[in-house]
Amino acid sequence: MKGINEKDIRIFVDAVSNFFFHATQEKVEIKTAYLLESDVPSSTYDLTSYITLSGSFTGRIYFSAPRTMLTHLLVAMGEQTRDNDRLLDAAGEIANTISGNARKHFGETMEISVPTAQATDPNWLKTVVSPHSYVILVKWKHYRASVVVDIQRADVPLAVPKAEN
Amino acid sequence: MDDKSSIFFKYRKIIFAVITFMIVDATVIGINFYNTYMADESAVSINLSGRQRMMSQRMTKALLTMDRALETGDEDGVKTSLKELTLTVRRFDRTLMGFRDGAMVTGGDDNPTYLTRVDTDEARQFVADAYVIWNPYMERLKPLLNSDRESFLDERFKQKLTDAPTLEEVKNKFKAEEAFTDTEFAKKLEYIKNDPDAFRAELKAAVDFALEKNPTHSEPQNNRAVLKLMNALTTDLEHVANKQAKKLRIILVVGILVALANFGYTVVISIGDLMRGDRELALARKETVEILSTVREGLFLLDKDKKIGTQFSESLPDILRRDIIPGADFLPHLEAIAPRNIYEAAVDYIELLLGDRVKEALVTSLNPLTNVPVLAADIRGNTQTRYLSFFFNRVVAEEKISHLLVTVQDVTDKVVLTQQVEQAKNQAKIEVETLLRLASSDFDSLKQFIDGVGESLAQINEKMSTPHDDSRERLHTLNYIMRIVHSVKGEAAALGIDVLEAYAHECEKEMVAMREEDSLSGDQMLRLAVLLEGFYQRHSSLAQIVSRLGNALGKAQTAGEWTAQKHPFADHITALAQRIAVDHGKQIEVSCQFERFFSLPKATTKELQDISIQLVRNALMHGIEAPNHRTMNNKPPTGALSLWCEYLGHGQYTFTVRDDGCGIVPERLREHFVKKNIMSPEEAATLSDHEIANHLFQPGISTSETADQDSGHGIGLDVVLEKVKDMGGYMLVKSRPNQFTEFSIQFSTVH
Q: Which one of B143, B170, B352, B357 is separated from B343 by 20 to 30 angstroms, measured CA to CA?
């Protein structure tokens, strides 16, 4: 039992949606949502950022998007620099927005790490998240990205994430 | 109220300063008034003293004029002189007495006024010296006057008189004394004519005395001596008046200075107190604002008119999710968020608290506004239920209820947690019951079911993982999920796994509600994912239980060969049919022939089981009538339901479900579809009986009036049809009104 509900998950999706809306006046749209397991798409894209939660909830929230989408985002934001580091920064900023919303929703007792962003292989998420984590597939313009919610209440035993790299 | 909190103690310095100011002012005004009075008296004395000088000269002049007129025989001159002499002598005589003793005299305006006796030694000496001359002078003047009586014989004239009638009487008396009337003159003229020498001698004596040298005075004549004495008296009186005026000025200046100093003290004290009061007020206000901006509860005061106070905690609008204006009516806000019955009870409760007939402690338990469910929209516009608790405390001032202090708390988390605990308890109870039921069930059937549910959930998840671009795709997926969930629900019911059946039913209800909306959004896919996760959780728990059961029974965790000729599903489907019949007040007898199931592939058996469950539900809900209806239609009260599977040879099979219920009546279906707006009356009329019956196999079509666990969601025959199609088979439906309905599925195991 994860102990999280639809309202909790929406907080993270809304954070991503609000980020895009403030930056580009266009919200993202949920295309579908499912649970991550072996027979379904990993929905891992080129660059993935995440934050780690501890406190009343533990686990991670991931945001994964293709380079092209983040590049387009930087263009829409009027950024001149669009190299790899800047793309990772943009992914990190989105994770940071998720962090802000999480703190607001779950309270100040929640400890949230600084965002981490990295380039990821197509199946990377399947190798690091707990089974049946929520995958929310979103669309901005014609790009697809994913928000993966792998958290549970602290009193619920947490599946140990697999080692990274 | 203790002494230190009383208003007199608080403003004691200001009150002292004001009282002192008033005393000083009253004293100054009093002194001023007294001095003004004294100044009035001085003015009268000075005025009359000046008149004495004039009178002394006028009387001398009158004597001399009369002497001349007498010599020339001027009768009128004598008369005028006598009049003047009488007036001046009487007034002089009376006024001099006033200076000596104090008495009523004729004032400057010919009205009586009181002349006070002179005070100073010098003045009294001047008056005494004047009398030394005046007494003999008066003796000589008397024979010339209108009468020879003395003035001021009436003692009353020595008193100060003020009332108007008396003053008028005095005035008349004085006038009479001072007047030399024509009658008196005629008498005097006769006297002069009769004895001119005598009158001349009297006149001469007076004139001589007036002009005679006064031996005791430096002046050569008595007349001038009197003038000089009156002059000296006037000067002395003026000097006294000046001294009084000077004293008055000093007193006034000192008084005003004291009053000003006192005023300054009052102002300084007042400003000091005001500033201190302002500081204390500002500090108190700051503390109040800090409390109201920090406190998480909604806090406000409610007055007798049920209006919200001017100050309330910042969190109040957030908690109520409403814009609150200071001084606004509270009840409309409450009415907007609380259920009607609770609102009405709350209005009575608030009235009760604002009245003083009942004790607060006695009615606290009656508060209807605890854990009140309120509906509010979140930022996405979704309606959500929150729970609020309102607490009321009386605020008493001067032994009267002035306000109610209202505390509002958002207790949603607490209530939800309580509900979750309650739910968890129920869940645990259900799980234990499930465990007990499972322990008595056939293990292989259970294992097969659990594996099947796992596969079904995986299928759902796989379907959901495909991006859905529009509402139509989502609706398609929703229908797909609903069919699977419905099958799971049926199987769970057949096996008596309530926990899964109930959850599947709950999911079904939500999905039916989603399907009824105009379009399906991506947000609803998230809702489906959450429902799926709930399914996975329950499935996982059950899988663990079954696994442990398997271990306990020492069975292999794969389905084994059937050892009995009777297929176990026969018992499950019979139990399901009996349960539905009992729930809906019907009676049923089930006969099953499932022996052929043993020779069918496992997947086909599972499909047939799913189909059986749905068709049995249909038969019980829509076919078999209630016992009294059956009796009225000449049928036995217990309905008959038969399920059998036959082998037709060459890999061909037929599976049949038949009931002896009311049958499919096209006319009734037409009416129902029109009533439910599934089709127009015209369309219903044009369709053939066959086409009408075919509508039963479309998603979302149900002939039940209400939805419950067993029917009414419009999921059923479309599931059956899908499964038959998946099996590569086809279905025949036979029915006769009031007699029977038979679903016959033909399929092949050879492809």
A: B357
Which of B189, B219, B237 is the endpoint of a domain?
Answer: B237
- Say if CB B408 and CB B388 are below 8 A apart: yes
The domain that contains B352 carries what CATH number? 3.30.450.20
Contacts of A1 in chain B (CB under 8 A): 537
Q: Are residues B550 and B441 in contact, defined by beta-carbon separation less than 8 angstroms?
A: no
Task: Provide the residue range defining the domain that includes B483.
Answer: 417-552
Residue A165 inside a domain? The answer is no
The residue segments making up the domain with residue A70 are 6-152
Greatest Cα pair distance in chain B: 198
- Summarize the confidence of residues A155-162 as an average pLDDT: 38
Same-domain status, B630 and B509: no
Q: What is the pTM of this model?
A: 0.45
Contact B529 A136 (CB under 8 A): yes
Q: Are A32 and B462 inside 8 Å of each other by CB?
A: no
- List chain B residues with CB under 8 Å of A30: 521-523, 525-526
pLDDT at A156 over 90: no
- Taking the C-alpha atoms of residue B667 and residue B602, their distance in angstroms, rounded to an integer, is 40
B141 contact A CB<8A: no
The amino acid that residue A118 corresponds to is: Q
Q: Can you give the CATH number for the domain in which A139 is found?
A: 3.40.1550.10
Please, what's the b/e burial string for B292-314 (b: 16 or more CB within 10 A of its CB; e: otherwise)? beeeeebbbbbeeebbbbeebbe
Nearest-CB residue to B465 (from A2, A32, A132)? A32
Pairing outcome for strands B308-312 and A143-153:
unpaired
Residue with tokens 């249909």: B618
Residue A117 lies in a domain: yes
The Cα A110–Cα A154 span in angstroms is 11
Residues B385 and B446 in one domain: no
Same domain? For B574 and B444 the reply is no
Same domain membership, residue B580 and residue B525 = no
B258-317: pLDDT as tens digits: 888 888 887 888 888 788 888 988 998 888 888 888 888 899 999 989 999 988 998 898
CB of B556 within 8 Å of a chain A CB? The answer is no
Which chain A residues touch B530 with a CB distance below 8 Å?
5-6, 9, 134
Residue A160 lies in a domain: no
Check A34 against B468: CB less than 8 A apart.
no
What is the mean pLDDT of the segment spanning B515-526? Answer: 84
Structure tokens at B66: 């009369």
* Number of separate domains in chain A: 1
User: Is the minimum CB–CB distance between B514 and chain A shorter than 8 Å?
Assistant: no
Examine the fold and report which residue of B410, B440, B471 is the final residue of a domain before the chain moves on: B410
Domain membership of residue B248 (yes or no) is: no
Residues B422 and B405 placed together within one structural domain of the fold: no
> Residue A86 falls within a domain, yes or no?
yes
Rounded distance between C-alpha atoms, residue B557 and residue B194, angstroms:
181
Does residue B633 lie within any of the structural domains?
yes
The CATH number of the domain holding residue B509 is: 1.20.120.160
**Mean pLDDT across the stretch B548-552?**
72
Task: Inform me whether the pLDDT recorded for B9 exceeds 80.
Answer: no
Tell me the pLDDT tens digit for each residue of B634-649. 888 899 999 988 877 6
Return d(Cα A92, Cα A76) in angstroms, integer.
Answer: 17
> Is the pLDDT confidence value at A163 over 50?
no
B523·A30 Cβ contact <8 A: yes
pLDDT in tens, B57-89: 999 999 999 999 988 888 889 889 989 999 999
Based on the structure, what is the number of domains in chain B? 4
ipTM of the complex: 0.91
Of A39, A136, A139, Cβ closest to residue B526:
A136
Report the CATH number at residue B744: 3.30.565.10
Whether B702 and B584 share a structural domain:
yes
Cβ-in-10-Å burial (0-12, 13-18, 19+) of B682 comes to: exposed
**Encoding tokens for residue B475?**
């609706």
